[in-house]
Amino acid sequence: MAGYENVSSSPWLGLSSLSMSCRSAWGRKAALSTLSILVALLIAGQAVTIYFVYQQSGQISKLTKTSQTLQLEALQRKLPASAKPVKKMTMVNMPMAMRVLPLAPPEGNMDTAPASNKTEDQVKHLLLQGDPGKFFPTLKDNLMGNLKKMKNTMTDVDWKSFESWMHKWLLFEMAKNSKPEKRKAIPAVKG
C-alpha cells in the first residue's frame, strides 16, 4: 500500500483540526454578529414605529375631536328647529303662542335696564336681549279672558303644547310653595 500512509500519524492532521476550529470560531462570531445586527435592526424598527405613532397622536386626537364635532352637528341638523340648543340662556321652553298672537311694538331701547324689578319685566328684557325682534301682545283682560283669546288665535297643536307647559309650570309652582307637613306625635299605646 504504497502512497497510503497512516492518517493518524500525518503531520497535517493537526493543521486540519486547527483550521476547523478557526472556521468554527469564525462561524460563531459571524452568527453572533448577524444576530446582533438583526436585534439592533429590530430595536431600531420599534423605536422608529414608536416615534411615528407619537408624531401622529396629535393628529389622531384632532381627527377624533373633528369627528365628534361633525357627529354632533349631524345630530343637531336632524333635530326639529324648536329642539335645537340655543347659545343664549332662555326661559322655560315656551310654546309658539306669542308668535301667533297680535303683536305689540317693542318698548324702548334694549341696552337699557328692564322697566322694573317685576319678574314679567325681567323676563321680557331677557327674551328681548336674545331676540330683539320679539313682540309681546297686550293682554288686558282677566286670566281666563286672556287664555280664551290666546286659545282662539293658536292652532290645536300649539294650544296642546301650551297646556302641557302650563301643567309643568303649575307643578313647579306647587313644589316651590309646598310646606312640609308637621308630624304629629302618635300617643303610645299602653298595654
Automatic annotation (TrEMBL):
Q: Does the keyword Membrane apply?
A: yes
- The chain positions of domain MHC class II-associated invariant chain/CLIP MHC II-interacting read 26-102
Biological process, per Gene Ontology: antigen processing and presentation; intracellular protein transport; negative regulation of DNA damage response, signal transduction by p53 class mediator; negative regulation of intrinsic apoptotic signaling pathway in response to DNA damage by p53 class mediator; positive regulation of cytokine-mediated signaling pathway; positive regulation of ERK1 and ERK2 cascade; positive regulation of macrophage cytokine production; positive regulation of type 2 immune response
Which positions, given as ranges, span the membrane?
30-54
Listed GO molecular functions?
Answer: cytokine receptor activity; macrophage migration inhibitory factor binding; MHC class II protein binding
Which GO cellular component terms, listed alphabetically, does the Swiss-Prot or TrEMBL entry include?
cell surface; cytoplasm; extracellular region; membrane
| Domain MHC class II-associated invariant chain trimerisation as annotated: residue spans | 117-184
Task: Offer one Pfam family short name for this entry.
Answer: MHC2-interact
> Which cellular compartments is it found in?
Secreted
Question: Which UniProt keyword terms apply here?
Answer: Glycoprotein, Membrane, Secreted, Transmembrane, Transmembrane helix
Q: Identify the domain of life.
A: Eukaryota
Q: Which residues form a coiled coil?
A: none
Protein name listed in UniProt? HG2A protein
Q: State the species of origin.
A: Anhinga anhinga (Anhinga)
**Source organism lineage?**
Eukaryota, Metazoa, Chordata, Craniata, Vertebrata
